[in-house]
Amino acid sequence: MHPTLADDLARFPELLQSARDFAVRELDGLDDRPVARLDRAPGADVLPDGGAGAEGALARFAERWAPGFSASAGPRYLGFVTGGATPASVAGDWLTGAYDQNGSGAAGSWAAALEREAVAWLRELFGLGEAHSGAFVTGATVSNTVGLAVAREWLGERLGVDVSRDGVAALGPVDVLSGSPHSSVGKALSVLGIGRDRLRRVPVLPGNREAVDVDALERALAALDGRPAIVVANAGTVNTVDFDDLRSIAALRERYDFWLHVDAAFGGFAALSPAYAALVDGLDAADSVCVDLHKWLNVPYDAAVQFTRRRDLQVRVFHNASPYLGLPTGEPDFLHLTPENSRRLRALPAWFSLVAYGRSGHREIVERNVALAARLGEGVAALDGLRLLAPVRLNVVCFTLSEDPTPKRVAALADAVAASGEAFLTPTVYDGVPGLRAAFSNWRTSKADVARVLAALSARD
Questions:
Q1: Are residues 241 and 127 both part of a single domain?
Q2: CA 163 to CA 168: how far, in whole Å?
C-alpha cells in the first residue's frame, strides 16, 4: 500500500474528526458569509505527483477553494428552488459515503430494501397509491426523463411497436402537450429521440396564470383524431408555482388516449399540508410522477424520485441483459428501472430525514416557507420601484422593476443583491417581462432572513 494511503488509513478516525470540525465551522458561519461569490475562481493548478495526504488535501481545500463556495445550504439562498440539508440528512449522506453501497440491486446487501422502504414512505407522503412504484434518481431532469421514457414505451404498446427494440423512429411523430412545461421536459424529449419540437404548448388560463386551460387541452387532444399522445401536467410551475387541474385532466382519458405525466418537482410537497393538499388533488391518477427531493425535502444533492404505474414498461426500457446482473424477474433490481447501473445509495439521506422529522416535521418546513414567501411578497409590493409579476401562490415570489424592466436593469438588481452578500436570486422572464424569482425551500429560513432580503432590495442603487 502506498505509504500516504496507509498513514491515512491508520489515522482515519482523526481525519473524519478534522473533516467534521471543518464542516461544523463552515455551517456555523452560514449566517455571516456571503450568500454567493461573484469574483473569479483561482486558475487551474497542476496535478500533484506526491500526495499531501487527507489532512493536507483538507488544508489545501480550506485555503484555496472553500472561500468561493456559495452559501447555498443557508437560509437566504433563494435562487432556483434550492433546499438545504437537514442535520439528519447530512448524517445519512456521510454514512452513504462511508458504506459506499452500490444500490443497483439486492445482491449481498440490504441497501435496496432500504430504498424500497424510503420510496414507499414518499409514495404515501405524496398521496399516491400502491399501484405506483418508484426509484431514486439524481434529480428532476432524470425523473422526468424516466417518466417520459416509460410514456414513449406506452405509445409503442398502443401502436403495436416495441420501441426499446425497434427504436423511436418506428413510432412516427409523437405528440406531447403541456401548458407551462419546465425546460427539463424539452431536454428529456431530446435525449429520448422524440425531439424538442414535438412539445406543443397548450394555451393557459387567462388572468396571469400558468395553469393549462383544460378546455384548450381537450381541443388539442380531439384534433389528434384518436392518435395516442403524452400530456405533461404541472404541479407547481417554475415561475409562479401554479397548478394544473390534475383531476380534470385525468378525466379527459375517458374520451382521449394519452399518458399523463405530472411534473411535481417541488409542488408535490403541497400534499404534506392540509392547507395546500387540494392543489395536488388528482396526482394519484397520473401514469408517471416526478418529484425532486433536494428541493423541499432538504436532502443533499443529488436526489429525486420517480413513480409510475407501469413498472413492466419501465423494465422493458431500462433492463440490462447480462449474465452477471441477473434477469429482472419478480421484484426487479433498481438497475433495471433507471438509466444507471452503478447507483449511489441516495435513498439513505432521505430515509434519515424522514425518520428524524416525520411527516409533521417536513410539513412544518413547507408551511413556514409558504408563509415566508407571502411575507416577502408583501414586502416587495410595498417597496418603491418594485412590483410583483404574479400573485404569491405558494413558495416563489416573482417580481420585477416597476419601471423599464429591461434584462440589463433586472440583471443589475440581481447582481447588486448578490454583491451585498445578503441573498441570491435568479432571473426569469414571465409573460414576456424580465424579472427575478425568490424561491423558499430551505429548512433554516426565518422571518429575520426575509427582513434581510428586503433590506438588500431596499438598498439597491
A1: yes
A2: 6
Place of cell 470540525: 21
Same domain flag for 67 and 109: no
105 & 161 share domain: yes
Find out whether 396 and 81 touch, Cβ atoms under 8 Å: yes
At which residue does the C-alpha cell 459515503 appear?
97
Name the domain count of the chain.
2
Top-confidence residue, 331 or 304 = 304
Three-state secondary-structure class, residue 306: strand
Residues 6+ apart with CB under 8 A from 194: 148, 152, 168, 174, 176
Asked whether the predicted pLDDT for residue 325 surpasses 90, the reply is no
CA distances from residue 5 to 2, 58, 67 in whole angstroms, order as listed? 5, 15, 27
* Grid cell listed for 41: 475562481
Provide the domain limits for residue 65: 3-71
**pTM for the full predicted model:** 0.96
Contact in structure between 181 and 244 (CB atoms under 8 Å): no
| Whether residues 259 and 169 fall in one domain | yes
For residue range 122-149, list pLDDT tens digits in order: 999 999 999 999 999 999 999 999 999 9
Q: Do 41 and 68 form a contact (C-beta atoms < 8 A)?
A: yes
pLDDT of residue 163: 97
Instruction: Name residue 329's amino acid.
Output: T
